[in-house]
Every structure is written in C-alpha cells, then in structure tokens.
C-alpha cells in the first residue's frame, strides 16, 4: 500500500511537470528589421530571395524588410530605431562615418559590380573608343554619392583622368535621356538595365564600358566594385552577434540560389508584381543583372580601398574614413 502511494505521488509530480512544460511559452525567434534601399530593385535581389524562400526563418530569425528608397532614408530608419540594419551599397558606410558621425560595418557583400553600363551617344561612335576619349564630355550620372556617379568617377580615375574631366548631369527619365543623347544635350550615360539595353537596341547609344559583369568591371575600374551589402551599426553587431551571423548565413544561401538557378526560376520565386507587368522583359533583366552577385560574400580589401579613393576624389572629407571600421569578413567565415 505504501509503495502504491509513492508510485501515485511520483505519477502526479510527473504530470505536473509535463503540464508546466506544455504551458511554458516557446522561446520567441529574434526579430530583425532591415531597411532596404529599394526592396524590389534587382540590385537588392538576395534580400528578397532570402525572405521569399524562408532562409531567414530557417536561420532562426523573424526578419522584416522595410522598403526605404527615398524618404525616410535607410540611415534615418536605423538612427531612430525603426530598423536594425541596412541593405544598400557598401560606400554608405563611408557616408555614415563622415556625414552622420556613426560607425556602420558591412558584414556581407552581395554585389561585386554596380550592375551598370557606360553608354555613349551613337553620334560619337567614330570619336570615342575608350573612357579617356570622354574627357571634356557631358555624362548623365546622378547625385554626388550615387552608385552611378561613383562608378563613373572610378572609371575616369582608372583611365588616368580626373573626375573633373567630365561634366556630370543629374538623372533624367529614360525618354529625356534618350533625347539628350540624340540631340547633343549629353554625350554619355551610366545606365542600369533595362535602360542600357533600350539605348543600345534603339540605336541611341553604344556600350563603352561593361560594369555589369565581374570581368567587365575589372577591365573598367581595375578591380571589383563592392556594391550591395548588408551593413549594421557597430554597436548592434557587438551586442547581437548571433543575429548577425544568422542574417549573413541566410543571405549567403540566397547568393548560392541566384548563382545556381536561371533567371526564370529566380523570378518565379519573387512576388507576382515584382518587375512590372512584362514578365518576359523582367526575366531578361534578371538574366543580365544576376551576374553582379558572382561573389562569395567577402569584401576584398583592395577593392574597398579603391572605392574609398574614388569617393575621396569627389569629397576630400572622406579621407577621414577609418576603412577598417567599414567591413568585416568574420561572419561570412562563420567565426563569431
């Protein structure tokens, strides 16, 4: 009888313990908000792929992508606490230090080219054969710190010229840019797809420099171009190493998916409205632009230093940038 009472007591304790385990809330996955400089833009494709294919979730995170192509900017969203990290071009880490007085650090490089082509007006085909031949010409680039301006400046420096050897024009709508190229208002344009192909197929311009492919980029600027990156405030990286490692590994999986699948398969993984109504044209665009994601996630020190030189040529204040604070390859290597 005593043995039976002991057995019943043990059973009761077991049931209570089991109930406690059943009612205890499961550990919630860490939540991370990433501000993206244009979620649907092909230059940010790995972030959208990682979200759509569940790579963030598989890494143990709940990730929200916030579209921030203009106002508020990606840096504003991080500064006021609405975002934890940023997906944008790597050179924004230079701008963070100089323009905002904060240290942000890239932990993964996605784009190794700017995904652009330097197109020259067809009327100049007989006189322009190299970047050096554009000296004194007018080129449609963009804002002072835009990727197009940085790429153009870098190409001029690599050709032995000064960034003041051409006249920059702000970005124009495609039809306005085409008119300027035809009529002499502009001599060249640094263009993304599908605009670059439009200028070429319509006979308005020809390609002078290919900064879409790794091979063409090396020829145009002497090295690869650190473009789309995941970067975060240094303080967040130090206090959330597990989350940062998980983000990096998820985006590495996205890079491998992009490299190993054709454009049609990649587009099929995206939201139906991404890229507009012309799905065939968007597939062609992704086929061309996926080549910018040919890297392995690492940031090359020589390429980073060369990009900083191109930025400093435009604004000497960037000479104050501590390059070593702008990136780390530790998370790509899985070290933290």
Can you put this structure into words, describing what you see?
Helix 2 (45-52) packs across helix 11 (241-260) and helix 6 (147-158) crosses helix 14 (301-314). This protein folds into two domains: 31-112 and 226-325, 3-Layer(aba) Sandwich (D-Maltodextrin-Binding Protein, domain 2), CATH 3.40.190; 116-221, D-Maltodextrin-Binding Protein, domain 2, CATH 3.40.190. The protein has 14 helices and ten strands. The radius of gyration is 24 Å and the shape is globular. The chain has helices spanning 2-23, 45-52, 55-58, 74-79, 92-99, 147-158, 174-183, 195-201, 214-221, 234-239, 241-260, 263-268, 279-289, 301-314, and strands at 31-36, 62-67, 85-89, 104-109, 116-121, 138-140, 167-169, 188-191, 205-211, 228-233. The longest helix is centred in the first third of the chain and has 22 residues, at 2-23. The strands form two sheets. A five-stranded mixed sheet has the order 2-1-3-10-4, sandwiched between helices. It is an alpha/beta fold and 336 residues long.
- Uncertain regions: pLDDT < 50 for 5+ in a row? 1-25
Q: Strand percentage, roughly?
A: 15-25%
Instruction: Provide the CATH architecture of the largest domain.
Output: 3-Layer(aba) Sandwich
Number of strands: 10
Query: What is the CATH topology descriptor of the largest domain?
Result: D-Maltodextrin-Binding Protein, domain 2
Radius of gyration, Cα only, in angstroms? 24 Å
Q: What's the number of domains?
A: 2
Strand order of the largest sheet: 2-1-3-10-4
**Count of helix runs:** 14
Biggest β-sheet strands, sense, barrel: 5 strands, mixed
CATH superfamily of the largest domain, by name, is: Periplasmic binding protein-like II
Helix content: 40-55%
Mean pLDDT: 91
Shape: globular
Task: Please provide the ordered H/E string of secondary-structure elements.
Answer: HEHHEHEHEEEHEHEHEHEHHHHH
Name of the level-1 CATH class of the largest domain: Alpha Beta
């Amino acid at each position: 009888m005593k043995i039976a009472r002991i057995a019943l007591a043990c059973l009761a304790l077991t049931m209570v313990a089991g109930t406690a385990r059943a009612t205890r809330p499961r550990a919630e996955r860490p939540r991370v908000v990433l501000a993206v400089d244009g979620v649907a833009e092909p230059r940010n494709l790995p972030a959208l792929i990682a979200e759509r294919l569940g790579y963030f979730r598989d890494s143990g995170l709940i990730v929200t992508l916030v579209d921030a192509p203009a106002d508020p900017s990606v840096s504003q969203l991080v500064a006021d606490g609405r975002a934890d990290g940023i997906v944008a071009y790597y050179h924004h880490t230079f701008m963070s230090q100089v323009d905002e007085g904060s240290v942000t650090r890239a932990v993964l490089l996605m784009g190794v080219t700017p995904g652009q082509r330097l197109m020259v007006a067809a009327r100049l085909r007989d006189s322009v054969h190299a970047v050096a031949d554009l000296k004194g010409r007018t080129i449609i680039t963009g804002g002072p710190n835009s990727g197009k301006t940085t790429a153009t400046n870098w190409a001029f420096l690599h050709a032995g010229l000064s960034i003041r050897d051409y006249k920059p024009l702000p970005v124009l709508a495609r039809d306005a840019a085409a008119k300027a190229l035809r009529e002499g208002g502009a001599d060249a344009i640094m263009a993304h797809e599908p605009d670059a192909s439009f200028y070429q197929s319509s006979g308005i311009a020809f390609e002078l420099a290919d900064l879409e492919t790794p091979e063409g980029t090396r020829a145009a600027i002497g090295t690869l171009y650190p473009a789309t990156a995941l970067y975060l405030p240094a303080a967040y990286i130090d206090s959330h190493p597990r989350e940062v490692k998980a983000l990096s590994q998820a985006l590495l999986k996205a890079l491998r998916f992009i490299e190993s699948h054709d454009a049609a398969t990649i587009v099929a993984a995206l939201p139906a409205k991404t890229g507009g109504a012309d799905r065939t044209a968007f597939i062609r665009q992704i086929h061309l632009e996926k080549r910018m994601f040919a890297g392995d996630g690492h940031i090359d020190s020589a390429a980073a230093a060369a990009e900083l030189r191109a930025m400093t040529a435009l604004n000497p204040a960037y000479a104050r940038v501590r390059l070593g604070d702008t990136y780390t390859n530790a998370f790509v290597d899985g070290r933290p």
